[in-house]
Amino acid sequence: MNEPPTAAALLQQGLFHHQRGELSLAMERYVDVLRVNPNDADALYYVAVVACQEGQYKEGAKLARRAIENGPPQARVHNLLGQAHDRLGEPLEAIKQYDKALAINPNLAEAHGNRAGILADAGFPEEALKSYDRALSLHPNATDWLNRGTLLIGMGRIDEAIESYDKAIALDGQSPETHFVRANAMSQMKRWDEALAGYDRAIKLDRNFAPMHRARAAALEALGRADDARLSNETAEAIERAQNAKSTGVT
After folding, report:
1. Is the pLDDT of residue 92 over 90?
2. DSSP conformational letter for 139
3. 40 CB-side CA count, 13 A
């Protein structure tokens, strides 16, 4: 007779499905582990991850706490718990968990980045900037460069913000949001040709976001191209009408 798979084998199967985005199959394997050992910290962590991915943040937080209670200190579990509390609108508890994660592993880039986002929202831009810089020194990624740029815009440091956006685009040139906010920064500096080029890149990636067309129209107006600006505004109006009709069920 074949031996039943071990907990380690079941976890590996779960991770295989998880990485492929097959959450229901992943959950089945994790639950198989918990049937044998309801306090398996790794399985509890991965079930908590799935719960958070599915928007069940209260359940995710509950499972993460069980993983903390039943396993050795793990930075990733406190980081996940921090994310759950953030999503639940509990920033102070989220910060506590990120700090606990970093006390265990000071080099967990994701926790530094998550912590920075909370500090920025709480009105501590200088501390947030330090956290973003630490995160990016450990693991450069487009999201943190984008968020760092947006933080710098709020601090009035537009040139530095543009540099951050450029680094985000170098890592992920397919993000319409990054091209859009970079173009907005160019507009603030009245660098209209560069702003227009940025809006065009953003619209090429996402044609159905009306504010991009509105912002493009403003740049065209500043460049003295009134007819082109009118067409951009008309495009924005058409998108808004279609979206309003869809939301109200009108065809």
Report:
1. yes
2. S
3. 19
Please list, residue by residue across 202-222, b when 16 or more beta carbons sit within 10 angstroms of its beta carbon and e when fewer do.
Answer: bbebeeebbebbbbbbbbbbe
Type of residue numbered 173: G
Quote the CA–CA distance of 39 and 131 in Å, as a whole number.
34
Cβ-based burial of 76 (10 A; exposed 0-12, middle 13-18, buried ≥19): middle
By the 8 A CB rule, do 135 and 105 touch? no
Nearest to 180 by CA among 152, 210, 151, 144: 210
State the amino acid at position 221 in one-letter form. E
Type of residue numbered 141: N
Q: In sequence order, which residues have a C-beta less than 8 Å from that of residue 70 and are 6 or more positions away?
A: 39, 40, 41, 44
Which residue's structure tokens are 């044998």? 36
Domain 158-251 falls in which CATH fold?
A: 1.25.40
Q: Residue 251: is its pLDDT beyond 70?
A: no
State the Cα–Cα distance between residues 119 and 238, nearest whole angstrom: 38
CA dihedral sign of residues 138, 18, 49, 69: negative
List, by residue range, all CATH 1.25.40.10 domains of the chain.
57-139, 158-251
User: 55's torsion region: left (phi>0), alpha (psi -120 to 50) or beta?
Assistant: left
| Amino acid letter, 231 | L
Q: How far apart are CA 71 and CA 73, in angstroms?
A: 7
Q: What is the CB neighbour count within 10 angstroms for residue 27?
A: 18
- Residue-wise pLDDT for 134-184, tens only, equals 999 999 999 999 999 999 999 999 999 999 999 999 999 999 999 999 999
Q: Is 57-139 a CATH 1.25.40.10 domain?
A: yes
